Each structure stands twice: as structure tokens, then as C-alpha cells.
Amino acid sequence: MFVHHVFFWLKSDNTPDEIKKFEASVSSLKSIKTVHMAEVGKPASTDRPVIDTTYSYSLLLVFNSLADHDAYQVDPVHLQFVADCSKLWERVLIYDSESL
């Protein structure tokens, strides 16, 4: 399995409509055929020193292989998401991992 975990810090001056646009657009990534599993979320209410809750949204995608991930990266739905929403975030951090 290949896990792609993306954290988004949205700009503080985004309008409610822009936030809705981001939520709909990021959720559209679940429809990409090479995505095995997908979850979109916001920081949980957990509170321990090792937990970072400063991000706005997270996207967790699981693929069956690196090749599936690579196909996702060039999928038109993903490219449209980046084109439409990149102006809404100030920071993105990605953690990729592969099963042992």
C-alpha cells in the first residue's frame, strides 16, 4: 500500500463560499479511480503536546501501489483541484509512506 497524507493550511481571509468550494473540490479527489481509500477531515479535538492541530484540513489517500499514486498525480480531477484551490491555501505539507 502507498499512503499519501496531505495537510492544508487555508488562508485566514477565505470567504465562506471559498471554504465550501475547497471542501467540495478536495472531496472530488475521492472519485479518482486509482484511489483505494480516501478521507477528508479537520483537526480532531485531541490535545497532547505531540499533536499538531494547526492545519485546516487533511486529506488521506491510500493507493494499492506507487504507480496508482503516480497516475493520481496527473489525473484531470487532481489537476483541476490544484488549479482551482491552490490560491486558497498558504501552506501544504505532504507525508507519503509505503507499507513494509
UniProtKB/TrEMBL annotation:
Domain Stress-response A/B barrel, chain residue ranges per copy: 2-97
InterPro entries in the record: Dabb (IPR013097), Dimeric_a/b-barrel (IPR011008)
SUPFAM superfamilies for the chain: Dimeric alpha+beta barrel
Pfam families: Dabb
Name by which UniProt lists this protein: Stress-response A/B barrel domain-containing protein
Taxonomic lineage of the native organism: Bacteria, Pseudomonadati, Bacteroidota, Cytophagia, Cytophagales
